[in-house]
Amino acid sequence: MSPGAPRGGRFDTRLEARRRAGVRFMWLCRLAVAFGVASLVVLLVSLAADGLPALSFEFLTSYPSRFPERAGIRSAILGSAWMLALVAVMSFPLGVGAALYLEEYAPTNRFTTLLKTNIANLASVPSIVYGILGLAVFVRFLALERSLLAGAATLSLLVLPIVNIAAREAIRAVPDSLREAAYALGATRWQAIRHHVLPAAMPGILSGTILGLSRAGGETAPLLIIGALTFIAFDPLSPMDPFTALPIQIFNWTTDPRGEFHALAAGAIVVLLGVLLMMNAAAILIRNRFER
Amino acid sequence: MAPEAVLETVGLGVRYGETRVIEDISLTIPTRRVVAFIGPSGCGKSTLLRCFNRMNDLVPTARVTGRVLFRGRDLYAPGVEPADVRRAIGMVFQKPNPFPKSIFENIAFGLRINGFQDDIGDRVEASLRAAALWDEVSHRLDADALGLSAGQQQRLCIARALAVEPEVLLMDEPASALDPIATGRMEDLIGELRGDYTIVIVTHNMQQAARISDDTAFLYMGELVEYKETQRLFTNPEDERTEAYITGRRG
After folding, report:
1. A176, A188, A196: residue with CB nearest B99
2. ipTM > 0.85?
3. Are A79 and A268 within 8 A, CB to CB?
4. Of B22, B14, B9, whose CA–CA distance to B61 is shortest?
5. Domain spans of chain A?
6. How far is the alpha carbon of A169 from chain B, nearest alpha carbon, in Å?
7. How high is the pLDDT of residue B3?
8. Could you tell me the pTM of the whole model?
9. Which positions in chain A touch B58 (Cβ < 8 Å)?
10. Mean pLDDT of chain B
11. Could you tell me which residues come within 8 angstroms of residue A221 by beta carbon, excluding any fewer than 6 positions away?
12. Tell me: the pLDDT tens digits for B93-127?
């Protein structure tokens, strides 16, 4: 035994009290989970009760109408689909390209650090602010009018920071040993990125993009600001057409004083939630498939 | 007669930000010999190794001063393409880092990016044979490289490096992640490659350096302390720091 080894101190281990404190804390955590699950169940059950009766094939394939029994969400579904496709086409290359530049090419200095911090701030800017920006820039200045393109461009601004941050995190998570392996064989920067960094980061980039898109699919405020219409009785056929979208249609119906339309709104909410849940499920599937 | 030099450093220094890692190192790597760098952790031996294929370029804060000559040509001169340097001076890392692809694709990648004009399949086989891996994987070239054992993965990394015809092979503690049997095979392989390639190997393991190398350089705190034929360095060290390290009294 070493001469300095401490010996002979008194301990009150209170094992039983410590064990009970652990059990108490576990029950507090369980309560927190139960609260979340209960709110979700209440939400889904009340939505289903209100919304499911409104759901029918005709509801999905009819245009809106001032007669509740004939009104449907055909143009809103098509508008949302157009919108999400356009947002994906705009935000994916821009968001991922900027992420690749910031992570793989740009030097780390005060300017790029400032840039990254500001992108994080952009992700938390309220969506209505993007709506006002979209109205000024896309609708008025670029004279896109109240078109699908103007709406999609506005939502892309909203989604870009989300895609960019997710992509940067995915790119950062690619181990340097993979880059070194490529460089050591004589790969140029682009060859290393194209063949190894991007494929390894793709699951993270894709699931981040889908989460961003599902955010865009549920946004209402920016579209209201730039003036999406609520009554569209035709199919939007080009990006320059005026449009409506599911959240707009829901907003419109819930503000209608006639109760019959509230049931339609609940039906549209069920459809919107279903679409968003499927998108999130797709994000999880993609992540799991690539991650082995 | 002094053997022909493949690599030569003149007053080489490397800083990471404010930290000096190696300073004023001048040494010559003779052609087709196995040279070992030994020294305690943090002595700068890996940093020195990474100057030879400009791997330090990837560390944003790294600053290289002095000169590194490859066959008389300054590797850090303006106009030198790092990708070209790295094809001629291959590298194997401490932890096996095969690409998460098939065994075949691991070797084909280097060939494709460098515009290999002959038959890729033939070259894959030749490279795997040269790395003493062919017999173990010839029936499953399409299998995931990550399914190989650590020792096999490391030999695959060597095969991958040999495929693009380097003159020099840099090895950064290539056996430190391997068990004793895989380490033995790695040393056998280095023995087989000796004579065809110039090999510079960083190792923590002094017995390994004594077994496999022709010449040994001892680095201590960023400085080149002693560099001579391996046998002479281990039996008759001149500097007391070298002696303290190789006899296990310090480091």
Report:
1. A196
2. yes
3. no
4. B14
5. 57-291
6. 19
7. 65
8. 0.85
9. 176, 179-180, 183
10. 93
11. A126, A127, A128, A131
12. 999 999 999 999 999 999 999 999 999 999 999 99
B131 contact A CB<8A: no
**CATH H-level superfamily of B5-246:** P-loop containing nucleotide triphosphate hydrolases (3.40.50.300)
pLDDT tens-digit series, residues A187-197: 999 999 999 99
Taking CA–CA distances from B110, the nearest residue in chain A reads A185
- The amino acid sitting at B18 is E
Q: Return the CATH fold of A57-291.
A: MetI-like fold (1.10.3720)
Supply A189's token pair: 């920067």
Number of neighbours of residue B24 by Cβ within 10 angstroms: 15
Residue B144 has pLDDT above 60, yes or no: yes
- Interface check for A179 against chain B (CB to CB < 8 A): the answer is yes
Domain ranges of chain B: 5-246
The alpha carbon torsion through B165, B171, B172, B173 (nearest 10 deg) reads: 140
Interface of B with A in 39-98 (CB under 8 A): 53, 55, 58, 60, 82-84, 86-87, 90-91, 93, 95, 97-98
Flag if A184 and B83 touch (Cβ within 8 Å).
no
What pLDDT is stored for residue A2 in this prediction?
Answer: 66
Query: Strand B215-220 and strand B223-229: pairing?
Result: antiparallel
**CB distance A186–B93 less than 8 Å?**
no
Contact (CB, 8 A) for A226 and A139: yes
